Q: What sequence folds into this?
């Protein structure tokens, strides 16, 4: 049986752990070859690559800070040289800080803006060039429930980037439509990752979990949503945000 994404090449940024890892593994399960990107590649990225290779897929590890233009340029040159095409881009790289407006310095603000939002711009710009030439492609931006409703406590810079990703998604969807490129966003709710525990602590995570009808989410659930948008089910969807939040934000 041919898997839905067989023959497709996907780049997942921030894929060594957390949500990015979950997305990379699901896309590989569906048949795609995977470029695993992370800012610092170590045993975690190598472990993800080993899992993907065990599925019989091609994979490539590329260490790059996707908030920096020169490193994105090198990343995409590597993709072009080794794969010759790019069918799927998942802009997942991102982070946050447990700070409110009073504690957030300009340096903090710029760091989160660059890590989360500038990276999405740079990678999307590079991918759009490749995909326009192919007349086909899928771009998925990993936003957040806080991009739709704001963060509950602090994280003002993080919320700003995740809202910005939604505006970018709709704008690029209009640009990409006549080129055969769809652009969508996935807005996760509270997902069980290392970053969640780092920024909220065990007690904070327990409180968050209690507020979610379906409890804490898993990275795999985000991967399945991304795979849907990249497959046949996403053929006529662009400029949309798919909410995967366990009922914490119902509309």
A:
């Amino acid at each position: 049986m041919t898997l839905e994404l067989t023959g497709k090449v996907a780049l997942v940024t921030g894929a060594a752990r957390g949500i990015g890892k979950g997305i990379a593994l699901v896309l590989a399960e569906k048949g795609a070859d995977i470029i695993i990107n992370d800012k610092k590649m170590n045993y975690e990225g190598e472990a993800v690559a080993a899992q993907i290779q065990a599925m019989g897929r091609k994979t490539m590890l590329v260490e790059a800070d996707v908030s920096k233009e020169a490193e994105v340029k090198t990343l995409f040159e590597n993709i072009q040289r080794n794969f010759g095409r790019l069918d799927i881009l998942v802009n997942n790289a991102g982070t946050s800080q447990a700070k409110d407006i009073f504690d957030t310095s300009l340096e903090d603000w710029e760091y989160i803006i660059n890590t989360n939002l500038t990276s999405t711009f740079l990678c999307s710009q590079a991918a759009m060039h490749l995909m326009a030439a192919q007349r086909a492609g899928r771009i998925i931006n990993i936003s957040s429930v806080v991009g739709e409703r704001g963060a509950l406590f602090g994280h003002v810079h993080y919320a700003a980037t995740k809202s910005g990703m939604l505006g970018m998604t709709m704008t690029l969807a209009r640009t990409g439509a006549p080129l055969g490129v769809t652009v969508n966003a996935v807005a996760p709710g509270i997902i069980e990752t290392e970053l969640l525990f780092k920024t909220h602590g065990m007690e904070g995570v327990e409180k968050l979990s209690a507020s979610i009808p379906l409890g804490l989410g898993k990275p795999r659930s985000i991967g399945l949503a991304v795979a849907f948008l990249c497959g046949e089910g996403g053929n006529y969807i662009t400029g949309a945000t798919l909410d995967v939040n366990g009922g914490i934000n119902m509309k």
About this structure: The mean pLDDT is 94. The chain has one domain: 9-243.
